[in-house]
Amino acid sequence: MKMENAIRIMAGTMVLISLALGHFVSPYWYWLGVFVGVNLIQSALTGFCPAEIILGKLGVGKGKCCG
User: At 60, is the pLDDT very low, low, confident or very high (cuts 50, 70, 90)?
Assistant: First the structure.
């Protein structure tokens, strides 16, 4: 899997989790979605992406995609 796709999946999952937790547990969980959105914007502007560092250490994006 490409790193860009993994980051999009991770960000989308985090936003959906924050929406579910905000609805069922506490509205404060919506701040997680805000954090993810702000982080996506800053990474687009600066090129620094903490999710890319974490996923890289987990081995995402090192193998060949599609054989």
Answer: confident
pTM: 0.82
| Count of other CB atoms within 10 angstroms of residue 36 | 19
What residue spans define the domains of the chain? 3-57
- Length of the chain, please? 67
CA distance 54 to 37: 17
What are the Cα distances from residue 17, in Å, to 6, 36, 43, 52?
A: 16, 11, 21, 20
| Cβ(52)–Cβ(30) below 8 Å | no
